[in-house]
Amino acid sequence: MRHRTLSRTAATVAVSTTLVLGGCATAPATQDLCSNAKNLTTAVEEMRALKPDGAKIDALTAKVDAALARLDQFQAVTEGRFDSAVSTLRANLDSFRQALAAAGNDAFTAAAPQLTSSLKDVSSAYAALNESLATQCPTG
Fold first, then answer.
1. What separation in angstroms does the CA of 1 have from each of 4, 8, 34?
2. 10 Å Cβ neighbour count for 30?
């Protein structure tokens, strides 16, 4: 009988320890959120650094694709907390990508105003997401 009591006590301690240590998983999850946010920031900044011009359409499209991939990775760890901001940023990145595809290298001059407007929309959506992240991933 005493053996069973010790076994139950040991099992209870093991489960309690698992639950307590499991609570520590929030730090890596936050860290993962913040590292993915940093990767997204890098991708968006690299995309915005290439100013739209006719010679850089392909390079800019590749940067938009990279930003969308980073956004997917970021969204996978957000647990739904930033869905609205992520959706807005995704829609604006998609619109910018479509504007780039429509512009092509030959029709760039005609598409330049729309590209500039789309890029501003991306910047605004990214700024809103970044502002939401400030409490989760403080810089400094």
1. 5, 11, 51
2. 13
Give residue 77's identity as a one-letter amino acid code.
V
**DSSP, residue by residue, 4-63:** HHHHHHHHHHHHHHHHHHHHTTHHHHHHHHHHHHHHHHHHHHHHHHS---GGGHHHHHHH
pLDDT recorded at residue 50 = 76
**pLDDT tens digits, residue range 43-92?**
999 888 877 666 678 888 899 999 999 999 999 999 888 999 999 999 99
DSSP 112: H
- Give yes or no for a contact between 121 and 95, defined as CB atoms under 8 angstroms apart: yes
Centre a 10 Å sphere on the Cβ of residue 93 and count the other Cβ atoms it contains: 23
Is residue 122 within 8 A of residue 89, CB to CB? The reply is yes
